[in-house]
Amino acid sequence: MSFTERGPDHAREALVQANERLLESGQGADLTIITKDGSKKYHSAIVCPRSSVLSAAYWGSFKESLTKTIDLSEDNPLMVDNMMRYFYLLDYPGQEGLEGSFKLHAQMYVMGDKFDVSDLRKIAARRVADSCDSFGKEYHRHPEEQLAASYLKIFRDVVCLAYKSLPEMDFALSRPLAKTIAPWLAAYPHLLKNPDYQFCCIQFPLFGLDMQAEILFVAHAGDLGWRVLRRTES
Question: How far apart are CA 203 and CA 107, in angstroms?
């Protein structure tokens, strides 16, 4: 049986294994990425085609094209490493536990948005939505106010990340967040005074607007509430 007759899955696996060897060995690496944790060398031919931002910096008319170095020290070094591993291995490492994986996927979505990696955004967005669904299912199994309040504390970090880092009309994180939180508030209205929920509404008024769309409109008018309040046709 020839290599191609083994099918696309085998070819993908072989490519990922080859890239993993390059990632671990650093052989032929020509791009240095600097983070708060230090520096590491990568292969520009693998990294740059995946990100228009990194491509423009490394192959454009910027100092990075001369120094062969890109400084990402303002970004979370773990997320940078995850993104680089994604370029090579077509996936990024997960974390144990629902809370940890939820926050990781949200951070990876933001990285995909910042560095214009559309496929990373899609994967991370789907995983954020799946995490929200898991929180929702767990709540429906145990619909208790204390559980809802504890989830609001977890969601606070992701809400802050999403509304601070993403464009206003990017609903990939905001919509599943609002859809998940709304039933908790509907069941226990005094959670509107929950300090974590109020913090998010005060710091990010658009979050409060989205929650209005979800709580007051969506139940009666479907997505119309979002289109009206957000002034978008999407």
Answer: 19
